[in-house]
Amino acid sequence: MKAALKTADGRFTIEEVEEPTLPAANWVKARLRMAGICGTDLRHWKKPDEHLHCCIVGHEMAGEVVEVGADVTHVAVGDRVLIESVLGCGACEWCRIQQYNRCPDLYPTRRASVSRAYAEFLVGPQHKFYKLPDTIGYDDAALLDTYAVCLHAQHLSGLTINAKVAIIGAGPIGLGQLMLAKASGADVLIIDTVAHSLDLARELGADETINTSTDDAVQAIRAMTDGRGADIVFECAGGESMPRTLPLATRLVRRGGKLVIVGGFDEGEIAIPLEWQRIQMSEITLIPSASFAFHDIYPEQGEVLQLVARGKLKTQKLITHRFPLDRINEAFDVAQDKERTGAIFVGLEI
């Protein structure tokens, strides 16, 4: 099959590689049709990562079932499917209680099968495949990994109706967080430095938008909340911006409020100075949020699929660019240079 393999310098080369086979009777094989480029992928773009060299990566995807094992009952050949890529070892304490996003072996496990979106085929256990309604296209479905990340963060936050919310970052995760908060009855201020992203945030229902290149976000949230600050702040930018956005998030949240850290960090020890005395004296709760799994008895990936099907979450407004897999390097450049290109969600047609 055709696949995009990571190179030594962090780009991609298109190669012919061996097509995966079903390793067990309850596994499924899919022909991929659409894959997304997310912030995690971009943090590794043009950066040497020895552990990813010659690997297939990518974890936002949808496709068509082409083969099923003898014990598969959830899906059938020909079904259009969303494929969940958060797959733990299945044996540890966390996996046994459906907290597989906390699995110690999460990344090696998922990279071996379902977290290989930039290729023509992949295989995975049947419970990671969700049938798509006729109203949801492959491109819509490729956004649903992102939305499940947002839903998990909202579940951790305890957000309720009439909450005053600030969101830092108006990329796909920040915009997904916005739509979920608005659907739950919150008032939302969203913050970014990219004008076209803030324009879309207003279209999607943001009550206030702030471009921190020109305006003061702390002053704006205080004006919106009678001087108190936000009940909940979601940091959705992450990556290289975290040394700026995480301290800002702690200044936006009110006394007794919550800060949910959704944006990702790079590996290793990272020193980010914070006003710890004020955080402690104000009893501000810091909540790290990682990927998604189950909420009570419900898989969060399945929940966002239902929300899109019911029109609670929008997709098409976020999809700004589509490229064939052969042009994956160009697609990554476009996704990274969003201020120039107007990119929000960039999809790869496979």
From TrEMBL:
Belongs to the zinc-containing alcohol dehydrogenase family. It is an enzyme of class 1 (oxidoreductase). The gene is gutB_4. One of its GO terms (molecular function) is L-iditol 2-dehydrogenase (NAD+) activity. Keywords: Metal-binding, Oxidoreductase, Zinc. This is Sorbitol dehydrogenase. Its EC number is 1.1.1.14. The keyword Lyase does not apply. SMART domains: PKS_ER (SM00829). It comes from Sphingomonas jeddahensis. PANTHER family: L-THREONINE 3-DEHYDROGENASE. Gene3D superfamilies: Medium-chain alcohol dehydrogenases, catalytic domain, NAD(P)-binding Rossmann-like Domain. Residues 10-346 form the Enoyl reductase (ER) domain. The keyword DNA repair does not apply. Pfam families: ADH_N, ADH_zinc_N. The lineage of its organism: Bacteria, Pseudomonadati, Pseudomonadota, Alphaproteobacteria, Sphingomonadales. Its cofactor is Zn(2+).
